[in-house]
């Protein structure tokens, strides 16, 4: 299996961290912007896009701060994706930090996908 490359993205976002957290940590919130539909049973989340299903395990979540998932088809891999809310202590500016992995020839495409997803999230939050 090919080594995946870790990348991080930062998206300034104009919304309260507690509101953003609802959209990154709950099935109903995630289905507003991340996938067409999201269901969960405990720490297992099922993401549905255009009829295709992907399952992910919720690895960690810290209230008001971050969520980390691992796709189940990659269960043996060390790869995950994390969505973290970062607040600048001085300016109080809020950013969404994305950590994810992609194969070398797919990094730019993956970054574009996240950019589009976060754009959808900003619209849902009314911060576009």
TrEMBL record:
Name of a matching Pfam family: START_2
Matches recorded under SUPFAM superfamilies: Bet v1-like
Full protein name: START-like domain-containing protein
Source organism, top-level taxon: Bacteria
Cleavable signal peptide: none
Species for this entry: Mesoflavibacter zeaxanthinifaciens subsp. sabulilitoris
Residue ranges of domain START-like in the record: 1-126
InterPro entries named in the record: START-like_dom_sf (IPR023393), START_2 (IPR045736)
């Amino acid at each position: 299996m090919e080594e995946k490359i870790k990348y991080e993205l930062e998206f300034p976002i104009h919304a309260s961290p507690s509101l953003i957290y609802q959209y990154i940590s709950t099935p109903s919130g995630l289905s507003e912007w991340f996938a067409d539909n999201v269901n969960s049973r405990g720490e297992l989340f099922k993401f549905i896009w255009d009829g295709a299903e992907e399952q992910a395990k919720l690895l960690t979540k810290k209230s008001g701060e971050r969520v980390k998932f691992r796709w189940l088809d990659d269960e043996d891999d060390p790869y995950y994706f994390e969505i973290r809310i970062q607040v600048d202590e001085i300016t109080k500016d809020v950013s969404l930090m994305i950590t994810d992995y992609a194969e070398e020839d797919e990094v730019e495409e993956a970054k574009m996908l996240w950019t589009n997803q976060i754009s959808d999230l900003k619209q849902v939050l009314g911060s576009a």
